[in-house]
Give the backbone structure.
Amino acid sequence: MGATTATFVRVSDYDFVNYDDLTLLVDNPHLNPPTFRSLLRFWREPYEHVYNPVTYTVWAGLVLCARIPTTGGTHHALSPRVFHIANIVLHVLNVLMVFTLLRLLIGGSRCVGATDWAAGAGALLFGLHPVQVEPVVWVTGMKEVLCGFFSFLALWQYLTYATKAQEGAATGRRYFHYAIATLCFLLALLSKPAATAVPFIAWVLDRWMLKRQSRQSVPPLLVWMIMAAALMVAMRVEQPYRDMGFIPAVWTRPFIAGDAVAFYLLKVAVPMNLGPDYGRTPQLVLQHGWAYLTWLVPCALGILLWWFRDRSPWLLASGGVFVAGMLPVSGLVPFNFQNVSTVADRYLYLSMLGPALALAGCLCTRRGMLVGVIWALGFTLLGFISALQASFWRNTFTLFERALEINPHSWKAYHILGTEFIQRGDIAEGIACYTEALRIKPSSANIHNDLAFALLAQGKLADAIAHWSTAIRIAPRYPEAHNNLAVALARQGKVKQAMAHWSTAIRLKSDFAEAHNNLGSALCSLGKMNEGIAHYRKALQMNPRYVAAHYNLAKAFEKVGRVDEAITHYTEALRLKPDFTEAQRDLTRALQARRHATGGTSR
């Protein structure tokens, strides 16, 4: 615990990074501020194509603790310290859980007197290894760490159930542990779908460490597999293959998965040059032919572990856990992050239980002063490398400048750095980064969309429209690009064309508050006040703290003579944004109009 905490404690002073932290958390109107209604939304349906309501519920609680008082605005400023500390605490708890699991798995006559030492060393490897930096230091990485917490709880309770079954314990006591394990597995699934690997990990440990037959382990795990399969089918519906730029042929996917396993083995053995974007996409791997050779490494290692399965069963089990933990994101089934890379450090979080088990098992049979000194030096080195790796996550610039050192062809890094420059007011440098990102990845609709914004800031409306049109041509189901193109077209006076794109955006994303607001304004400008008011109301239904929608709805109500309702929404806009001078001016006018209409009396 102490070593893990000491390695990561400085992270608590780090900032949010513009790598999902802002989109999913800080600037997410459904989460900041959290409401009971928004929480229900996370539980009812996927958000951003992924269903992980437990993570969003935990984030909502942390948002309440992390709010910083501000004067106005539609969301609160948040302290990243609260989220970083929460990640570190969860990781430390996971280290303790891994220690508990290892003690349960390696305990026995051959390890008498050394169980705690061996399990502690394995847990320390899990806690300190540099590949764990990304999920622990990255605020959004809580998805992995929280999923890991419930997954390890599920494995602990399942193995306790299986152990008691071997001992012939009472049925009620056994199934109490199984029920707790199933509940924890469900919470893990709802934290992140990567928990679909847990049933396979449980089977490997049950079969090769507890030595139970498959007829004993498969039936209770079949329930978990059905739960996992149902979630995978649901996620495939929400995150279809068509969102990917390249879908590898089915026959090539085992090679891609083998390449991923080989890559991860290298990073575990030599944890250097770690970064957020390795650029190891399926098309790159297949183009260079790596996949047709690299799979031989894990294959040969697997044969070797199988050969020693009777003499050292923990080695075969550790290899099985390592591979099983990454199965959902190995490339056997396509997933959207493969547009960036098939491999990522965070995908190893559950899998690192495998190396931890291998080390613990080996230390049970090889102990002594020299072994202790060697591993103490090894853990010190791992802690130093992890602390150094964590330092790159201090802010967005340090992270993605480092990403470009690791992968100079990272279009993702150029894209994010471009956004950072734009936010700092350096439009020219931002455009330069976006242009380089498009040179590397010309098929990215997101980059075209963001470059269009930057060009619009320079007054280049025609160029901006060209890039938004390209974004829609690349990704016809991109609601934000439809909305943005519509805004630009409206500036050119092409209101009807703009309205068509706003309608498309709403059809693609029914809760798109900004598109509802913009379409409402267009309808009101054409004199269709009732239709416009209806869209303003929908925008506020999606985001009750949407200042512009309150203001526009107030103006629409005022135009149709509903002054009292106009005053209500002007007042709410000012409550949310006290420095909103236009709303203050219009509210004063509306109040004067009401006093005049009532003969100078107030009510």
Observations:
- The mean pLDDT is 90.
- DSSP finds 30 helices and two strands in the chain.
- The radius of gyration is 28 Å.
- The beta strands are 67-68, 77-78.
